[in-house]
Each structure stands twice: as structure tokens, then as C-alpha cells.
Amino acid sequence: MPEQTLPNVLTERRGPLLIVTLNRPHVKNCCDAATAEQMSAAMDLLDDDPSLFIGILTGSGGNFSTGADLKAAARGERATTDDRGGFGLFRRPPRKPLIAAVEGYAVGGGLELCLSCDLVVAARDARMGLPEVRHSVVAVGGGLFRLPRRIPYHLAMELALSGELRDAPFFHQHGLVNRLAEPGAALQDAIAMAEQLLVNAPLALSASKEIMQRSADWTEEEAWRLQVPIAARAIDSEDRREGLAAFAEKRKPTWSGR
């Protein structure tokens, strides 16, 4: 099959896990308009299918993503969607946990994809950064406000103003990368991380994610009140009753996502 007829974004189900793969290896998985639309559809699938609990985002061909497709941009394409924003993800990530599995380059919009995820597993030799200023471009995919919330302010500022790339151990040292993997093993290690999370109730996972994300804009007084309806989706669920029954019966719970 000719390369250009392959989907730009592949999805693979592994039980309650959805693996989403950027599939433009010939351009290091940079994003054009079609890729953004397909990414948005993949995130809709993760959010809307109650049998899917966690997502993993990765790239094919040894790279995560080198950001926007500049040739497509020169043709007037916009790698964005009305609903989820840039790359079909930046403005509205999925409600469910999303893990980035990074090999090779995650630069520009590629790093902003990582910042749109909740957890990051990166190969030790991966290279990450925001080089936009070197091309008179501004990182408007969330990098300039998300990065200083994830690592110390002055380090984030240095990365944004210098455009320099750093290796994954640098980002691991400063807390952006959760786990380092051996080269070629990032996806494997991300799947192992997801399997550790899957022992927990899926509705509780998504509620915990939402409260942590939204609480950045809440006062403490607001937080006590606003967390209640979000947590209630898990606390009042069938899975909550299953969890209690499994504890009493000394067995592993079987989660339904309901």
C-alpha cells in the first residue's frame, strides 16, 4: 500500500488500553491538518468508549514528533481542530489518563504533545525542547504556560528563550519525565506503567485527573466545594460497590467503568 494512503494516526486496543500512534515516520511524525483531525478522533474514541480506561500516545519510526508540518503550513493548512485545538489535542486533552511514550525527538509541538499528557515515559536518548524562537515562531501549543508549571520557572524560561534541546534525563531530573526507558523500550515501559494503573478504578482515575487539573484555577475554599460533583461520579458508581465487595471477599475487583 502506498505510504500516503496509510492513516496518519493509528489506534490499537489492548483490553482497556488504547495505544495511539502518530504514523508519519517519513517526516518524523510532524503534524498537518489531516493528522490533527485523526488525533482528535482518536481522543474522542478514548473519551467516549466506556471500555477504554487509559491511553498511550507514541510515534512510529523511532521519533515521537517534531511538531508542526511546516510544508503543510506553507500551503495554508492549519494543524488544528475546532474542538480540541492544535494537533487535535492541545486545548482539550482527553478526560481519561494519557501517557506519552517518547523515542527520538519530541520538539516544538512534539514537546507540547507531552505537556498535554498526564505521564511521560521517555527513552534515555530522547531529545526534547521548544526550538520555535530559532525560526521566529512562538510556541502557542501550550508550551509557554504549561512548561513553567511542570519544571522550575527559570529552567523553563531558559528552554523557551534559547531554543536549546535537552536529553530526557534532564527532564527526568526536573520532574517532567516520570520514567526513563532504554532506547527502543519507551512504549513497552509505558504499557507496563498503564498496567499498574489499571488495577485502580477507571472512574476514580479520571475523576482524580480532572480535580488535579482544574484545581490549579481554584481557591482552596472553592476546591472543597467544586471537587465534590467530580468525585461523585466515582463514589456513586457500580465500580465503587464492586470495589467494596472485592475488598470484603478478598479478591481483585473487576472494573466496568460504570
TrEMBL record:
Family the UniProt entry places it in: Belongs to the enoyl-CoA hydratase/isomerase family.
InterPro entries to which the protein is assigned, alphabetical: ClpP/crotonase-like_dom_sf (IPR029045), Enoyl-CoA_hyd/isom_CS (IPR018376), Enoyl-CoA_hydra/iso (IPR001753), Enoyl-CoA_hydra_C (IPR014748)
NCBIfam families in alphabetical order: PRK08252.1
Keywords (A to Z) from UniProt: Lyase
Keyword Hydrolase among record annotations: no
Molecular functions per Gene Ontology: lyase activity
Protein name: Carnitinyl-CoA dehydratase
Xref: Gene3D superfamilies: 2-enoyl-CoA Hydratase, Chain A, domain 1 (3.90.226.10), Lyase 2-enoyl-coa Hydratase, Chain A, domain 2 (1.10.12.10)
Underlying gene: caiD_9
UniProt entry tagged with the keyword GTP-binding: no
Lineage, highest ranks first: Bacteria, Pseudomonadati, Pseudomonadota, Betaproteobacteria, Burkholderiales
Source organism of this protein record: Cupriavidus numazuensis
Documented EC number(s): 4.2.1.149
